[in-house]
Amino acid sequence: MLSVAEKDEQKTPPKLSRARGHLRISLKRRGAQTVLDDFYQQGCLKARFPAIEPGHMCEGVLINTSGGLTDGDKLKQEFIWGDNTYARITAQAAERIYRSRLEDACIETTMTIGKQAHAQWLPQETILFNGGRLHRTNNIDMKKGSSLIATESLVFGRTAMSEEVVEGAIFESWRIRHDGALVFADGFHLHGNIKEQLTRPAIANGAKAIATLLYVGEDAGRLEKSMKETCNRLSNDHTKIGCSLLPKLLITRVLGSEGAMMRAALGKLVQDLMNKTNQNTKADLPKVWLC
Predict the structure, then answer these.
(1) Which residues on neighbouring strands pair with residue 91, listed in sequence order?
(2) Treating both helix axes as pointing N-terminal to C-terminal, what angle do 259-277 and 224-234 enclose, rounded to 10 degrees?
(3) According to the model, what pLDDT value does residue 3 have?
C-alpha cells in the first residue's frame, strides 16, 4: 500500500521545463527619428524591427518562439519611450494560452513613456483555450505631455475550430499613471466555470471575445464625441461597443460574438483613433494585423 505522502505526490503534476522570456526595449529621439537606444532579449521572447517606410513610425514586433503559454510559463516585458519619441509595439501573431495542469501562465508588462512621447501598444488578441490560466498585468508610467494608444483583447476559443471554453482562469489588471497621478486602475477576473460567467449581462452578455482600447492623454476630452459616434456606427447584433471618458482617459470596450467580429471592429476603432491623433506620420494599422 502507498503511504499518505506517496499518494499526495501522485496527485501533484511532475515539474516540467517551463518557457521563460525577458525583453527590454528602450527608444530615443535622434534628429527627427525615433531609434533604438537599448535592447535586451532572453529566452523565448524576441523582437524584430522592420525597415521603416517613408512617413511611417518606428515599430517593434514581438515574437514568442515557444508558440504559446501554459502553466508556469512566464514572460516579462519592459518598454521605454524616451522624451519626444513616437513609436509602437505590436506582436507577430495572437498569443495562445493552453490548458494548464495547475499554475497560471504569467505575462508582466511595464511601460515608461517620457515627456512629449507618443506611444502605441497594439498586441494581437490572446486566445484562451479550455482549461487555460492567465495572469496578465500592465503597469504604465507616463510623463507630462505624453500620450498612449493601448489595447488588450481576449478570445474564448476559436469559433471556426468549434472550440469551447468551459473552465479556466484569467486575471488581467491595468495601472496607468500620468504625470504622477493614477488615471486608470482596472481588474478583470474570471475563475472556474467561465462559460457560465460570460453569459452574465454585467460581464459579457454571452460574448466570446472581449477587447479594451485606451487613449491616455491630456487631449482625451476632445475625442469623446467622435469616438462615441464611431462606436455607435460599428455596433450591431454581433458586436457591442461602448465608450466612456475619464480625466485624461478615453476607454472603449468591445464585445464580439466571436473573435473575428471583435477583431474587425477593434481594427476600425484603432485606425480611427490613430487618424485623430497622428503625429505627422501615416496612421496605418500594423501590417502583422492584416496577415
Answers:
(1) 62
(2) 150
(3) 59
